[in-house]
Amino acid sequence: MKPRLNIVTVGANNLKQSREFYRRALSWEPAKGSDENIVFYDQSGIVFALYPLDKLAEDAEIPADRSGFSGVTLAINLESKDAVDQLYKQVIENGGKSLVEPRKTFWGGYDCYFADPDGHSWEIAWAPFWKFDDNGSLILE
Question: How many structural domains are present in the chain?
Fold first, then answer.
């Protein structure tokens, strides 16, 4: 079997609020199949989804209570430091919580972190050694 990641689903306490946050903060529009119960975003080969937290936990048969760092971050990789700064500003202006302001990294790149309305941690990053294909997908060489 070829390795693949097809869907990343995160739990939302308020699906309508989270849907609006991703529209305003990241300019993402819901994809076909989205409705009042689930939201899909086409991410060039991977689907990012929002689903009610309680229902997601029930489906996975795990408790819905969350506290502290979950051990997972999601990342948006961009083509320049300026793009990182611009998107970070847009996210914070639209309800994202700043976790780490844009900074130079120990690995030679540039990044920052924010949390969405449900506390999911996101990194926005630029790395001088990363390249992208025509769809904006990261190429690992």
Answer: 1
